[in-house]
Amino acid sequence: MPSEDYAALLERIGRVKDVNSAIGLLSWDQEVYMPPKGAPARGQQLATLSAISHRMFTGKEVGELLDRLGGDTSLSADATKLVEETRYDYDRATRLPESFVQKFSEERSKAYEAWVRAKGENNFEGFRPNLETIVDLSKQKADLMGYEGSPYNALLEDYERGMTTEQLRPIFSELAERQSNLVERIAASGRAPDTAWLDTEWDRDAQWDFTIRILRDMGYDLEAGRQDESVHPFTTDFDLYDVRVTTRINTNNPFEAIMASIHEGGHGLYEQGFLASDQRTILGEAISLGIHESQSRLWETLIGQSRPFWEHYAEVLRQAFPEQLKNVSNDAVYRGVNKVQPTLRRLDADECTYNLHIILRFEIEVALIEGDLKVADIPGLWKAKMKQYLGLDVPDDARGCLQDIHWSHGSIGYFPTYTLGNLYAAQFLEKLLEDLPTLWEEVGAGNFAGLLTWLRAKVHQVGRRKQPAELVRDVTGKDPSSEAYLDYLEKKYGELYDL
Amino acid sequence: MPSEDYAALLERIGRVKDVNSAIGLLSWDQEVYMPPKGAPARGQQLATLSAISHRMFTGKEVGELLDRLGGDTSLSADATKLVEETRYDYDRATRLPESFVQKFSEERSKAYEAWVRAKGENNFEGFRPNLETIVDLSKQKADLMGYEGSPYNALLEDYERGMTTEQLRPIFSELAERQSNLVERIAASGRAPDTAWLDTEWDRDAQWDFTIRILRDMGYDLEAGRQDESVHPFTTDFDLYDVRVTTRINTNNPFEAIMASIHEGGHGLYEQGFLASDQRTILGEAISLGIHESQSRLWETLIGQSRPFWEHYAEVLRQAFPEQLKNVSNDAVYRGVNKVQPTLRRLDADECTYNLHIILRFEIEVALIEGDLKVADIPGLWKAKMKQYLGLDVPDDARGCLQDIHWSHGSIGYFPTYTLGNLYAAQFLEKLLEDLPTLWEEVGAGNFAGLLTWLRAKVHQVGRRKQPAELVRDVTGKDPSSEAYLDYLEKKYGELYDL
What we know:
Largest interface: A-B, 40 and 40 residues
Order of helices and strands of chain A: HHHHHHHHHEEEHHHHHHHHHHH
Radius of gyration of chain A: 23 Å
Number of strands of chain A: 3
Distance between the termini of chain A: 63 Å
Largest sheet of chain A: 3 strands, mixed
Number of domains of chain A: 2
Strand order of the largest sheet of chain A: 1-3-2
CATH topology of the largest domain in chain A: Neurolysin, domain 3
Number of helices of chain A: 20
Oligomer: homodimer
């Protein structure tokens, strides 16, 4: 029999989540359907609802409920965990003074505007003072939140709980070394696949139908979710039974939409996979961005760029595009999907180069927050590292250090979760193949039931009951590491490029 | 220089409106894009946000601000009006005790479920007890709100401010007599137009493009709004610059979508037409449902079912559907659009019969609220009146008194606004033709700029500065009456059916 306090906490959190769902819908709509002139009002609506949600969650009644429930030994294990997780969020939400939150929010808005302009004009100087302010405020935030070791750890905590700079450094430096080396060897092999067959027109509707077909095959429930189009694909959820993904269609390259849909579908399956009994509670939430990204990247790259996958789906795609693919073998499709080509833009990066983009950003962020780098010196360092890791000359800052939105949003500490997602995914796959040795045959038949069942049980249904590193350890028996991912990459691309 | 109190009131109301916009978006999404399994969570989200909005608006700080501002003689005329209108809403919102609001809300939910079931099973008895409760609560609500004359006036006030049962009775009884008579004469004429040409397939996309074309021609700003599809067409707004309409496409009859789009476009133009300086304030709102409906019906019927309109748009439609319309003259299209045919369903009614459906409901509602009719006697009375007004035998209650959702929603007093919309529209048109004698030539050229300019200045931009009857009087020089509408109907249909 749950106590009155516990019921009151659930009710309060449920209502906060209702407001957050409305915020989610306002944001989703902004990206997919809002008419352009609606933007200023939408900004106001979002600000009002965010303030309401913050106030509802950080009210002292919540603190009092948590104080009383913290000592309640009659609670079940789940209830105890729920109280602990709520306490964790409550403490972090209340540790920053309202004046600081307000100031940070205002500076972020200014920085975002300055960044849009600076990027358009290829003028880093136009963004430099704003980024300096963001870095200063991020350092202050680290001090207010508290940390051990590097101050960057306080920022990481927002995106990847429990992860530290000290843990990431050796992992990332090994990745940087071996992935750069791999990219060099691939370039030296001179075995770039011929993808001239891609240069034609690919019908929008046929692409759309193909992405819906794949989402269905993956097990994504379209009665409890939907797909729409947006400029930048994303996943959002308003409830366990309303999880939405978006994709982006390029009529010159069908693999943009296909890969975007599989990636977001991976995120969506995580959100659709929480326990029904955790619905509208804090336990029915993703534990971290890295774990979230492990789900999207597992589906997108480890499964969706695998040979068995394309042995099956090249045939399906050929039915949709008989003319375009009549002289293209399944093997050629597989090789085309896995073409390695260093790029200036992170968003264009392939499996072999993606982490290098992230590591570069991580190193710059840590140096900024630890005080070893001035904002004014970012462009030079960016160019040097792009040359070192990817062998590329950066022609200008617009295609260099101004390319990402994250810093203007104040999201310092976010980038590493992209790479952690890749690493966790490879670790999960290694274990998955032990538990489900027929995985590749199943994937080769377009059958993902075994895979999804495993992910549901091992990852999705855990919700917030375990922290990211704890989850990885419990599932795989190992700490987060680069080993599985590097083994995977070197084996796959060694074969593909005959290294 | 506005006072601090005035600025505080604007800020408070602005935030309430932000929350209401989020409620609007949640409701819009529910009708157009929400996946089916998302319904229960959506219900919770709507309940939470409605409670927040109500509490924000009825807080005692608002009352204190209004008290102080009510005596502030330094305010401008607009500011004074804004305070008065806010006071009006505040008083009405605070007059019902929270326990009553809660009870009514619960009973409405139960009544809605019972109605859906009862309608499906054609079993009035299954809905009767719930409707009795709704009627009882509506009577209690009337007592709590206060009224002069009929208690029904207190309910009318929610939808059509200032309108009374005493004013409506003679207007409606004249309408009933003359419209029934007109319908009888049309039936007796034996001149029903041949609409066999409609019985073919009408492409969805071509219909969609045609409705968008008309919306654009009307002056609806698609950068500040959009059209989607829904089962029941509606208009909603989240801001002056985000006003959305929906339509419904029937591939067996293109005029359903066309008329729905023009109707909702008329509502949408009203919402897009408030003054920019009234944005996010209570003055930038529709004054009543009747005035709102006057805008939709003016565009849909008086303009969109006129001969000049179809002299122009039959050509445009023929370009979209060359096969379907190759042997159909513009005159035949015009006659087809205006076919008169008594129907059991209000939603299928044409211009000549629509008000008769409304008057029947009005008479039943008034008798229920004044205590002259028992709920159990509704089915019998419904059948008698359908026979009297429309000459139809009602085969069952599902197609009779169970057809509308309104009573299950507790919306007693709403129906009359549909007919008032027709009457106001005809009164506006009469005046408009004096001010803009070239109207029909312009409409015949697909040019609505003069019409829209007139509506903007005379109706839209007034917002809530005038009450409905006051607006009608100020624009037309006459009180609300049935005269203009009956003249219009008898002239138009007299010609069409050669009476």
